[in-house]
Design a protein that fits this description.
2 domains, 8-stranded mixed sheet, alpha/beta, single chain
Length: 384
């Protein structure tokens, strides 16, 4: 009996703590279905210039070329830049910002952060200032035409839109796992950015006015989390951060190994940067901890259903009702993300494999604790 009481108590704690996530996700999904984000294009600001910046390690030149060509096809007078290392000898269809091998960031930032910091200061020295808006993209992401068009009239100093997948099918579980990123961005990025308080940020499609980017910089002396820190510093310094009602398209990992590397990097980027994040925005830090600890617990409802209907053990009606709602919201969140792929094939695969996908994604968090990444190297993955 004691063991059963403990089981009921622990279940009640997890159910009640996940319930706010379920409520917010469901409300965000309903809003997305009833009021899909449609960009309202403001007249272009007089004199506004837009440039795109891709920071690459040189391992995906063909993908970078495809991204550059697509943005060029939009027909806007956009300057495109690629930040690369001296060791990258590939000639891109864009202006190259070459980071000297001997360059050291003042706070000791390494890898991508070091390159971004150098590139942003280089642009400032070349005269790109208040009139210029920088669209930052990873070397596997590309903003849509509506995204660019919106930035021409954007009334904020910085902002970000939502993600969609642009390349799928290379690795089924990794693709399906990235569908929940689509849902989370639809719900959380949209909600927070519309309120002008960024709590979540991703490197894909982050837009910052050039002078603001130079003022904030990318040199935080951390292992990672540079996209979140840039957004937070922009906000805390008094600049306006807004929501871009358009999409940036990303590519999911192409293998199990790459998926693990990517998720492990995100996890340790957040926790190794915890002191800086907490200093800049304690609420953002604790919100991130909350999501990391409880974001995977929506499926606990299935166990309560087993306990209640199979084992015939008593469960508090309120806890059971909340758990049933959590479980339903959990399924809806995954299905909503899968629906963004616009194929019944992926929706049906998600329905059949949802718990496999959940454990596949959640398992990387547990495994990475035992196999942490190096503090000095930046793990990269194959891009398509």
């Amino acid at each position: 009996m004691v063991n059963l009481l403990w089981l009921e108590l622990v279940s009640a704690v997890f159910v009640s703590m996940y319930f706010p996530i379920a409520l917010v996700q469901t409300a965000g999904i309903v809003r997305g279905l009833l009021f899909p984000p449609v960009p309202t294009f403001l007249p272009p600001k007089p004199g506004r210039r837009i440039i795109t910046v891709i920071c690459t390690n040189g391992q995906n030149p063909d993908v970078v070329q495809q991204i550059l060509a697509r943005v060029q096809s939009y027909g806007f007078p956009i300057e495109q830049f690629v930040i690369k290392e001296e060791s990258d000898t590939f000639t891109y269809a864009a202006r190259a910002i070459v980071v000297p091998k001997a360059y050291r960031a003042p706070k000791g930032s390494r890898n991508k952060m070091r390159a971004l910091h150098y590139g942003t200061l280089w642009l400032a020295e070349k005269g790109y200032g208040r009139e210029t808006y920088i669209i930052f993209m990873d070397d596997d992401s590309v903003v849509t035409r509506d995204y660019v068009r919106y930035v021409y009239g954007m009334p904020y100093d910085a902002g970000q839109g939502m993600i969609h997948l642009r390349a799928v099918g290379h690795h089924l579980l990794s693709t399906l796992s990235d569908c929940i990123r689509v849902t989370d961005c639809e719900v959380f990025c949209r909600q927070f950015n519309r309120g002008h308080v960024p709590r979540i940020a991703h490197g894909e499609g982050l837009v910052v006015r050039a002078d603001v980017a130079a003022e904030v910089g990318w040199d935080y002396g951390t292992y990672g989390a540079e996209d979140l820190l840039m957004a937070l510093y922009v906000y805390t310094l008094g600049y306006r951060f807004g929501f871009i009602p358009a999409f940036v398209e990303i590519s999911p990992p192409t293998s199990r190994q790459d998926f693990f590397k990517q998720r492990r990097r995100w996890l340790f980027s957040f926790f190794r940067a915890r002191a800086v994040i907490r200093e800049v925005s304690p609420l953002t830090f604790y919100f991130g901890i909350y999501r990391y600890i409880l974001g995977w617990t929506g499926f606990i409802g299935i166990y309560l259903l087993v306990i209640d209907y199979v084992l015939r053990l008593p469960i508090d009606p309120l806890v059971f009702s909340m758990s049933a709602f959590n479980l339903a919201a959990y399924f809806v969140a995954y299905q909503y993300g899968a629906a963004s792929l616009r194929s019944w094939k992926y929706s049906l695969e998600m329905l059949a494999l949802q718990f496999v996908v959940a454990f596949y994604e959640g398992g990387t968090v547990i495994l990475s604790v035992f196999r942490p990444p190096s503090k000095t190297s930046f793990e990269v993955i194959r891009k398509v």
